[in-house]
Amino acid sequence: MGRKPWVKGTTSIEIDSPLPPMSPANLLRRILASPGIHQTPACFDALSAKLVERAGFHCCLAGGFSISAAKLGMPDAGLISYGEMVEQGRLITQAVSIPVIGDADTGYGNAMNVKRTVKEYIQAGFAGIMLEDQVSPKACGHTQGRKVVSREEAVMRIKAAIDAREESGSDIVVVARTDSRQAVSFEESLWRTRAFADAGADLLLITALTSKDEMKAFCETAPLVPKLANMLEGGGKTPILNPSELEDVGYKVVLYPLSLLGVSIRAMQDALTSIKGGHVPHESMPSFEEMKEILGFNSYYEEEKRYATISNQPSS
């Protein structure tokens, strides 16, 4: 613990000066600098983020697809607003101690909008922000309708994000994503990732790569900047590789964008079918005690005792 003298007049007094806690961004950077590949499931609310943390993962993604589905019941097609993502992100980051990367789609406008988005994502507690080069309104990755902005505008978005980070005195991790593999060509996607790296991006992603050879070529591009793999569960354009295979190819981070949302949808469908058939509870349902433990009821009751008065006794 650091200590420093405080001098007033001729009197010297030493006071405790504890080191500040590590910021979410610094924690994420430490994770990225550590050995191995880092699995990163996508969450969509505070509860799913807590489950990611309890399962032992070191970081998670607040994904646009999952949040659009869970919060709006709508497709990931640029329909969810900047404000809705910030609001949901703040609830997620407050629920966990692991770093959370926030999906910011296109940055919600031009370079000035990108700067505001970055600053608000920092305030919301995100450790990282993912920005892409699609036109607005965007389309969901691996689906039809991919269109990207010009090279100049795509790079300017990343430069604006870096400027916003510096102006905020933050160290938020900037993740640069390109959809140009599907919209233009593989060669174009490699050019853009190199340009993003030169602009200061901390982590690079090309969506919808179609082969292991393309994935390897991507990982060999801008070798000093770590690469992110997006394993679209259930059938996307990119081959599904296990973490060991991805690490061998050269990736540092692997995203699982749909796992939690997908199994949640199926579990709710199965539970509703079971209830409709008169079978309650569903066999896979956790007990009430387990749910209370996950949500922190016991720790809440213990803390409640600290503030109990004669007229305000804690619940039994």
TrEMBL record:
<dbReference type="InterPro" id="IPR040442">
    <property type="entry name" value="Pyrv_kinase-like_dom_sf"/>
</dbReference>
<keyword id="KW-0418">Kinase</keyword>
<dbReference type="InterPro" id="IPR039556">
    <property type="entry name" value="ICL/PEPM"/>
</dbReference>
<dbReference type="GO" id="GO:0016301">
    <property type="term" value="F:kinase activity"/>
</dbReference>
<dbReference type="Pfam" id="PF13714">
    <property type="entry name" value="PEP_mutase"/>
</dbReference>
<dbReference type="InterPro" id="IPR015813">
    <property type="entry name" value="Pyrv/PenolPyrv_kinase-like_dom"/>
</dbReference>
<keyword id="KW-0808">Transferase</keyword>
<dbReference type="GO" id="GO:0004451">
    <property type="term" value="F:isocitrate lyase activity"/>
</dbReference>
<keyword id="KW-0670">Pyruvate</keyword>
<protein>
    <submittedName>
        <fullName>Pyruvate/Phosphoenolpyruvate kinase-like domain containing protein</fullName>
    </submittedName>
</protein>
